[in-house]
Design brief:
The protein has two domains: 177 residues, D-Maltodextrin-Binding Protein, domain 2 (3-Layer(aba) Sandwich), CATH 3.40.190.10; 165 residues, Periplasmic binding protein-like II (D-Maltodextrin-Binding Protein, domain 2, 3-Layer(aba) Sandwich), CATH 3.40.190.10. The chain has 16 helices and 16 strands. α7 packs across α9.
Length: 422
Amino acid sequence: MLKKIIPIGILIAIIIIGAVALFMYKPWGGVGVPTQPTDTRNTAVTATATTTTSSGMIVLTFTYEDLSVKAEIPRKEVLITGGGSTFVNPQMQAWAQKFRSVSGGYVTVNYQSIGSGAGEAKWFDKALDFGASDVPISKTTYDRLISRKASFIQIPLIAGAVGIIYNIPEWDESKCGPLRLSGDVIADIYLGKILYWDDDRIKMQQVEECRSLLPHEIIRGIHRSDGSGTTALFTLYLSTVSSEWKTRVGTGYTVEWPRDAMGYGEGARGNEGVSAKVKGTKYSIGYVEYSYAVANKIPMAALKNKDGFYIVPSAEAVMEALKRGAKDLPPPSSFWGDVPATLINREGEKTYPIVGMVYAFIYTDIVSDIVSNKDLAAALSAFFKWVLTEGQKPENIVTGYVPLPKELAAKAIKYIEDYLKY
């Protein structure tokens, strides 16, 4: 009896081993490539891979509303280094983490939150694969690019808002709602013309029963100390609503702050630094990308918009500005200096007045007669195509940011496809 059982056991073992071997060599992704169970990168890509090119690139399909685009991922590890805007940093980190998974672990995006000014400068010097800023390429850098006949594009990535944050211990938001401020008053605070929180121009904007809550305390004006696209956007707004600000201070990554000269203002580095400084400084005011205010639970003022309504930042309020702002994009290598102004202080009952987009700058001569980095070019193209499609979907958006209208995303994708060749 035992002699009969042993051969049967051997036969069963052979069948099991054969089945396992067949499973291990089942074609991968339907394209005839053997699976590599010890390489988790390949396994991760199979969910979105549609085919493989003759050169071994993995082809993926991304969608956004009725947009559908294809992108190629090199089947080797590629590091993309970007940097700039602290405004976009929380969103960029989320995108980078998700895209690494989407790419099967092949593409790593290392984004450095160093400020828009530093990002633009390092990108210009080709120390970064892409730069990011809350405003388009500055006129100074643009002229330098043109003078050296550089090949580049700039594209929008995401929208957001600059929130005005404050720290007034006596203010009771549950009773009074958010502090109400108009643009001309904010300008005069930073100009040093309004010194105290109980100034009549601030008090008269609040509901009557709460005006007495404003203390006779010096306003501490906090601003960015580094070159900042958030500052450029904020000062663009102040220049729009205050002729004195426009002529005395103006707009830029950095400006001279009149309040500092009086000893009532100080700088902090990055949106992170301004958030921390305001949160830790009684009777202060500052400006940050509104996702930082949400994350740090810092009160934000309701700003008086062009039509006289007091609005706090929200996805809906930002989208209202986007609907009324940039309907199209200039050619990708032209000067985009007028684009941000189309989103500032727009009309509408629900429109927030300080809205902007984040822009990426990319050299397009990554593959040329002199330089040939096809893997980097392909990875950059795939990453930004993903950002402009899947990256705009609610599940990939960090609280405090607003997706681009489909029309702008589609135009940006076309710029990538037309100019970033590999």
